[in-house]
Design a protein that fits this description.
With 377 residues, the chain is of the alpha/beta class. The chain is built from 16 helices and 13 strands. Belongs to the glycosyltransferase 28 family.
Amino acid sequence: MRLLFVTGPTPSNIFALAPLATAARDAGHQVLMSTVRERTSVVTGVGLPAIAATTTPLADLKATRRSGEREHVPDDVDHPEFIRYTGRWFGRVAAESLVRLREVAAAWRPDVVIGGPHAYAAALLAHELSVPWVRHTWTALDTQGIHVGSEDELAPELARLGLDRIPPPALLIDNCPPSIRQADAAPAQQIRYVPINSQRVSEPWMYTWGERRRVCVTGGSMATQDNNFELIRSMVKNLLARGAEVIVPAPQETADALRAEFGDIRAGWFPLDVVMPTCALIVHHAGGLTGLTATLSGVPQLLLPQEAKVRESARLVAQYGCAVSLLPDEATEDRVSEALEGLLHEPSYAQRARDLAREIGTMPPPAEVVGLVTSLA
């Protein structure tokens, strides 16, 4: 059977869908994974065949409306218009991707199309081909405002198909453990989280404990000097003053800037699933996959969610007892110091992380979910 995976424009989209795609290949199915041109190396880096679905630079898709007008990007990430803006550029990615994916489908007709949470080209292509489409989200990631913005931008494609909105999936898959899933989240087929990251040659320090307590600080795969950089920088400074060994998985530009300033840190692109078991704590932006990777290693978390769409998930993780979550206006120097002290010295946080890891272990593995996906066809 042929399964086409359509991912969103960030590495996390690829890492989230890769376990199911890999399991499908292991079961003997043919698999292709599409993404924006800039992320094809991430797909091939996890051992999957990649399709470049766009030619326009991603920066241009984010900055320019289909009419040619420049986008107005709100400064306030909590403003509803920022969510709609995010939906609009996701819609532009989908519109351009759909052109390439039609060409792929003409030569290689998929039996099922599986899309990331906001990879709307998956829904439209599947509707055109009259095949099932599956929406694969993670940690119950969903923002209704994003859907609305995308539908505005995709109005020509929807009208061509006789639709007034993006059609619902035949199946929703989610890897969020039930204990931290939002109460109003849509019913979904559970899938066990399996960490899959871009890898590099592992060095001994990555998988062994150091002499000092190790703390991982990350803004995720998209952290740059313009995105969460100051937050990462201030946290590194705080932790070094506490005598911690600080490691920062980050893109090269961010890593170079941090090493130039602090020197005594390890910063760069290294696989989170390899280093996490050697950490006593992780400080991050409340990314779903980052948090689940930490959970599987029993590592407490300090969550600093910047975007409104992840704050409820961060609250639920903290409520469970394996993390502390501080909103931007709560992350004062005193509150951060208090949170670090508790997370590093109170064993209950690590115990609750281990409890949640055991719950993840009871969820259906990707190999089991593959059979459900293929049965739709």
